[in-house]
Design brief:
The protein is 33% helix and 24% strand. By secondary structure, the chain is an alpha+beta fold. The protein binds flavin-adenine dinucleotide.
Amino acid sequence: MDTPPNKDFEVAIVGGGVSGLVCAIALQRAGVPVQLFEAAAAFGEIGAGIGLGSNAVRVLKAVGLLDEVLKKIHPSELRTRGFIYYNGLGDNQEVFAYDAHPEDKGIGMHRAIFLEALVPVLEPQRAHFNKRCTSIVRCAQGSRRLVINFQDGTSHETDVVIGADGIKSAVRSFVLDAPDDRVAFSNTVAYRGLVPYKDLQEAGFKTPVVQDPACFVGPSKHFILFPIKNGEVINVVAFVARYDIPIGSEKLPPGTPWVETVPKEAMEKEYEGWGPDIAALMKCMPETPSKWSIHVVHPPLDSFVKGHVALIGDAAHAMLPHLGAGAGQGLEDAYIISRLLGHPETQGDNLEAVLETYSRIRRPRAQMVWSMSRAAGAVYDWQGAGGSDAEFMREELRSHYDYVWQHDIEADVEHAISELRTKGAYVAHSV
Ligand SMILES: Cc1cc2nc3c(=O)[nH]c(=O)nc-3n(C[C@H](O)[C@H](O)[C@H](O)COP(=O)(O)OP(=O)(O)OC[C@H]3O[C@@H](n4cnc5c(N)ncnc54)[C@H](O)[C@@H]3O)c2cc1C
C-alpha cells in the first residue's frame, strides 16, 4: 500500500524505461517524494519481446508488481524456462538441453505488455514528458540541492537524481565528473523480428520453440528464439559477432544509426549455409528486420554514484544481451536503491552514505553479469575455451545462469543496511 511521504528529501528520476519506471513505483510505494522526467512524449518500448529471469521476477514480486504483470499475460507464461541448444548448421540437431532449476521461474512477454502493466501503477502527476535532461548542476556552494536542466529550457530542483536514462545517459557525465567516454561498440550486431508461430510451421520449421526458448549455435553467430503471447508469436534475435578485436576498438562509421531497418537479404547473407530450420525461419522474418549495432557501457564505471546522483539500469552497466539479463539488472538496481532511500533511517543528512552503499552493493554484481553475458555469447559462438563441446557449453552456461537467476536480493538489502550501521550512517539498533 502507498504511504504518505515521510522524508525530508526529494528524488528525481531521469528516464522512464523499465528501470526508471519500476524505481519510481517502488519509491512511490515507500513514501519517498519522487518525480520522473522522460525525454519522450509518452512511456514507450520497442516492438520486441523481453525475457525476465527468476531474479527479475522476484524483484517484481517484492515491489508488488508481479500480479499486475500476470494480469496482462497468460498465467502459464510464468514458468521454469530451460533453454534448448541446437546446432544451427545441422538439421534439428539438439546439442543439449539446459534444465533450469524448478524454482527458476521466468517470464517471456512483449515489451509493450510489460509497460502496460507498470504504467497505471505510477501516479500520473509524478510523470513529466518531453523532458530531455541536458545537464545536472549543483545549486549554490554548500547546498545539497541539485538542478536538472532540460532541453526545453526548463529545470527542476531536487535532492537526489537517479539517472535511468539508458546507454546514452546524460546523467553519466555528472557521475564520471568528466565528458562521457564509456559507450563502446560491442562488435556485435543483432537482427530482430517477431514471427507468428503458424508461419514458421507452414514454412516447414521443425524445432519445438513454443514451450522452451531455443538457441541455435554456430561459429561467431547464434539465434535466440523465445515464445511470447502464449506461443502464438516467436521473438527472434539473431547475433553476428567479431572476436578478433577488443570491445571498444572499433566505432561505427560516422552517421550510422545504432538501430536501422535493413533488407532481409542482409540477414540471409549472414546465415548462408546454416541448417534447414534457419532457412525456413528466414522465409518468415519480416521483409525489413531491424538491425541493432549493440553498444555497451565499457570500460566499467568505478562507481554508480557521485554525491547525490546515482545511475541505474543501462545508464550504469548496459551489457550484451546474451543472458537476457540487462533489464533484470536494472530492476535489481531499482529495488536496492528504493529500499535504501525508503528505509526509515535514510534522511537528507545521510543520503551520500546511502547512495555510496547502493553502488558498493550493486556494482560488483552488475559488472559480473556484464562479464558473464559477454562470456555466454562467446560460448554460443563456439569461441569459448571448449569450442563447440556440448559438455563444456552446458557447464559454462549453468554457472552463468545460476549466478544471474539464483541471487538472493533480500540478502543484499540486509548487507547494505548492516554496512550503513557499521559506517554510523544508520544509528538505530532495530527498526
Ligand atoms: C537485442 C537486445 C535484446 C535484449 N533482450 C533482453 C531480454 O530478453 N531480457 C532483459 O532483461 N534484457 C534484455 N535486453 C536489455 C534490456 O533491453 C535493457 O537492459 C533495458 O531495456 C534497459 O532499461 P533501462 O530502463 O535501464 O534503459 P532504457 O530502456 O534505455 O530506458 C531509458 C529511458 O530514458 C529515456 N531517456 C534517455 N535519455 C534521456 C534524457 N537525456 N532525459 C530524459 N530521459 C531520457 C529514454 O527515452 C528511455 O525511456 C536486450 C537488449 C538488446 C539490445
